[in-house]
Amino acid sequence: MQTDAMNDMLAHFNDPAAVAQYTEGPVRFVPGYRELHRMTAILLGERAPEDAKVLVLGAGGGMEMKALAEAHPRWTFEGVDPAREMLKLAERVLGEHAARADLREGYIEDASEGPFDAAACLLTLHFLERSERVRTAAEIRRRMKPGAPFVAAHSSFPQGADVRPQWLSRYAAFAVASGADPEMAEKARTGVAAHLDLLSPEEDEAVLREAGFSDVTPFYAAFTWRGWVAYA
After folding, report:
1. Which of 153, 154, 144 is nearest to 47 (CA)?
2. Tens digits of per-residue pLDDT, 178-204?
3. Mean pLDDT score, 45-55
């Protein structure tokens, strides 16, 4: 189901000018962005075999796949993303590792049936409404081997009317402190506030459980971002 947030996202991530600057954004807006990739590699590697086949949903940009490929030289990847320009960027970012990645334009329905030894979905699920998150997560799980590890991380913070504005201000303030243009940071804050159907961390954990994942455990918390490891 296409929402306004998803349509805006696709327009942005298919804009070559925006994509050309993409790699600068997450580092400035997501505290511990590179460390998040490192932790993801460790968590998936706890249960995935040395020659694992890994599903990455929201793979545009390729930064997490590159980190996983460097950490696990024998892993292969299927990366799915709806934005063609972002997949082009992923291929460039992967460089020598691109031969190990099957990049597919589309959504979870466009992924192969697997079964996969591990899966990751980073900075993606917050674009989806709750029911669509549950459906998407369930489709990821359906493609995974029993007990395979899954890492999800995205925007998730308390949503009460009395605290939400402060958290969004912190989101923008961190970006400015990390070198982002203040006007761009404020525009991002306004866009998130207006268009994303965000959930609290407790609700996001419930989404993963409803999708059929077990042992859902938080491992990452940084201002407006949260991450979990769970098992199919």
Report:
1. 144
2. 999 999 999 999 999 998 989 999 999
3. 98
Residue 132, token pair as written in the block: 């669509």
Angle, in degrees to the nearest 10, between helices 201-210 and 130-142: 40
Question: Could you tell me which residues come within 8 angstroms of residue 99 by beta carbon, excluding any fewer than 6 positions away?
Answer: none
**Sign of torsion over alpha carbons 27, 104, 14, 98:** positive
Closest CA to 134 of 199, 85, 75, 73: 199
CA distance 100 to 50: 14
pLDDT in tens, 104-140: 999 999 999 999 999 999 999 999 999 999 999 999 9
Residues 79 and 87: beta-carbon distance below 8 Å: yes
Within 13 A of 106's CA, how many CA atoms are on the CB side? 9
Structure tokens at 35: 């460390």
**Predicted TM-score of the model (pTM):** 0.92
Residue type, 66: K
User: Which tokens in the block code for residue 74?
Assistant: 């024998």
pLDDT at site 25: 77
Q: Could you tell me which of 144, 134, 142, 150 has the C-alpha nearest to residue 211?
A: 134
Mean pLDDT of 193-220: 96
